[in-house]
Amino acid sequence: MSLTTSLVDLPGRGVTRVWEHPGPPDAPTLMLIHGVTLTAALNWSGVLDALGEQFRVITMDLRGHGDGFSPGGQFRLEDCADDLAMLAHLRGVDHLIAVGYSMGGLIAQLMYRRHRDLVTGLALCCTARNFRGTPLERIAALMLPAFTATIRWNPMYHAVGAELLGSSLIGDAPDSRTREWARAQMRRTSLATALAAIQAVSDFTSHDWAADIDVPTAVLVSSRDRVVHPRRQRKLADAIPDAAVFEFDGDHGAFLNDPKTLNRVLLAACDWVIAQSPMAPAASSELLSSELLSSAQPAARAVAT
Question: Global pTM?
């Protein structure tokens, strides 16, 4: 079987688009969580088939994004985490690795905190514990609520899509056709939802509890990231006991402009997480090679100390 997509009703919440790859029999499950202004297809289409050769893979459009249902009066990252847990339940998944990209990395951390029996590992990509560090970010966080309300209540902005913000997050697409497809995907999320999601990201912090994360965790650090500084990504890894760092030469839009590199590193990171988990079968992928392990183990030892 290969990759499929369908509209799925999450009872009491709404209908959203879900992408699934069954993977090999009894394969561990990855729940992929996309970033702000993106869709599941935009964030993950470059890696879904390759991941599906080794894992069962599930991803969906988050509330307010793409084909996702309305976020209601407020966009909350906690609600997104609960949506994903409900989807896992509907699909009969008892244990999974939460794989989050950027905003999705914050939601993955919340999935661990709110659904501890479900999440047996984490792979956190291009993300951090919080986005409150610089004076500019603190000013933006204070201004966002009023700006978001203005956008929401002004009819002239209702047809404006999130590509106005998202284009600055994804960097340079490899060609004009890919760039236009990405912009079309982002237009399916309203500007109001995108701003509300960014406000939720600004309000998030795991600073006080990241050290309590006790499942195998891989942190994928994009070394040329201009959206989430690599220093912040490494601080996230420093905060999580025994986390392994998988650093790669890429920017925040690696999922679009260099999916082959992201795929290689993500496979290695998920293999590492599986190999550390007592509840999952030992990893057997050829990608879990001595070369890839040598890049992760020194970082893991540095984090542990």
Answer: 0.86
C-alpha separations of 149 from 40, 143, 153, 163, 196 in Å: 26, 10, 6, 19, 9
Q: 176 falls in which pLDDT band (50, 70, 90)?
A: confident
Locate 214 and state its tokens. 């006790």
- φ, ψ dihedrals at 247, nearest 5°: -90, 140
Output the six-digit token pair for 123: 């792979």
- pLDDT tens string 77-96: 999 999 999 999 999 999 99
Across 284-295, average pLDDT: 42
205-238: per-residue pLDDT in tens? 999 999 999 999 999 999 999 889 999 999 999 9
CA distance 264 to 248: 10
Confidence of residue 192 (pLDDT cuts 50, 70, 90): confident
Q: Which domains does the chain have, with CATH numbers?
A: 4-304 (3.40.50.1820)
Residue 292 has pLDDT above 50, yes or no: no
Distances (CA, A) of 183 to 30, 42, 189: 26, 10, 10
Give the CA angle between residues 254, 257, 260 to the nearest 5°.
70
Please check whether residue 46 is in contact with residue 178, taking contact to mean a CB–CB distance below 8 angstroms: no
For residue 291, count CB atoms less than 10 angstroms from its CB and return exposed for 0-12, middle for 13-18, buried for 19 or more. exposed
Task: Give the torsion through C-alpha atoms of 184, 52, 36, 241, to 10 deg.
Answer: -160
Using alpha carbons only, give the angle 161, 165, 169 rounded to the nearest 5 degrees. Answer: 130
Tell me the helices (H) and strands (E) count for the chain, helix number first: 12, 8
Q: How far is CA 58 from CA 18, 97, 211, 219, in A?
A: 7, 10, 27, 20
